[in-house]
Amino acid sequence: MIDLTIEDQVAEVVLDAPGRLNALDEVALAELDDAYREAEAAGVRALLLRGEGRAFCAGRDISGVDAATDDALGYLRNRVTPLLWRMTAFPAPTFAAAHGACLGVGLGLLIATDVVYVADDAKIGSPFANLGATLDSGGHALFFDRLGAHRTLDLIYTGELMTGAEAVGAGLFSRAVPAAELLPFTRARVQQVAGGATNAFLASKRLVGELRDERVAFWAAVAHENEAQGRLSETLDYQEGFAAFQEKRRPRFTGR
Predict the structure, then answer these.
(1) Whole-structure pTM value
(2) Measured between alpha carbons, how far is 231 from 219 in angstroms, rounded to an integer?
(3) Of 67, 144, 189, 203, which residue has the fewest beta carbons closer than 10 angstroms?
(4) Per-residue pLDDT of the chain (256 residues; tens, 9 = 90+)
């Protein structure tokens, strides 16, 4: 279900159950958590998440769920949320290449990823209108923050899905790419970032996380930037970057 390859300091994590549009049950979520643990232990400098087949991830696999006895709270609180925390805190830049259905928990996986490139015809939204359930995995927060209350509730009430191009136009994700170009485009970007100044990227990741999660005020954010820059000035990559600029050559970063 979950495949992991590591090469040239890049981890590629693949949702590989195309027959069910990569929908996730508890076993698959545990495997996905293990893949991120393994990639972290390997010290990779970038990570790519993608799905095989016609979709990125259609959400939770409910094909065998008995609604009368379903522990929805346990599934979300004990499996999904800890995984999203792990993904968000991953100690390297993370990317996702998303195509087809990106729904429910699948949407949550994208929310927990640093940079998301989507196929221009991807399908994004809240598919729960006909299930008697509600949007989960951080979807309310993302939609409200980027779309406002009216559009968020419109999508939830109607079950209307946005295309990838529409979602990017609304500020939900990073960039929309023609479907045929999505994976090579994303892999090229990931490889580029894996060769970059990893500590500087992680400093920005932490600063953006503070702004998102703690709503840090402007001057506090400036102070945190100053402190981050001070710490970075003591790294080898900082010294290499300045030396490369002064010597008019490309920097050779090592992530240290």
Answers:
(1) 0.94
(2) 19
(3) 67
(4) 899 999 999 999 999 999 999 999 999 999 999 999 999 999 999 999 999 999 999 999 888 888 889 888 999 999 999 999 999 999 999 999 999 999 999 999 999 999 999 999 999 999 898 888 999 999 999 999 999 999 999 999 999 999 999 999 999 999 999 999 999 999 999 999 999 999 999 999 999 999 999 999 999 999 999 999 999 999 999 999 999 999 999 999 999 9
**CA–CA gap between residue 110 and residue 10 (Å, rounded):** 18
The contacts of residue 190 (CB under 8 Å, 6+ apart) are: 10, 46, 47, 48, 93, 95
Q: How far apart are CA 37 and CA 40, in angstroms?
A: 5
CA dihedral 104, 180, 165, 152 (to 10 degrees): 0
**CA 132 to each of CA 12, 77, 88, 159, 252: distance values in angstroms, whole numbers, following the listed order:** 35, 19, 29, 12, 54
212, 217, 223, 225: CA torsion to nearest 10? 30
Question: Whats the size of the chain, residue-wise?
Answer: 256
Q: How far apart are alpha carbons 44 and 255 in whole angstroms? A: 10
Among residues 96, 66, 68, 76, the alpha carbon closest in space to that of 26 is found at 76
What is the set of domains in the chain, with CATH numbers? 2-194 (3.90.226.10), 198-246 (1.10.12)
Number of H helices, E strands in the chain: 10, 9
Question: Hey, is 216 helix, strand or coil?
Answer: coil
Number of neighbours of residue 38 by Cβ within 10 angstroms: 14
**Burial class (CB within 10 angstroms; exposed 0-12, middle 13-18, buried 19+) of 180:** exposed
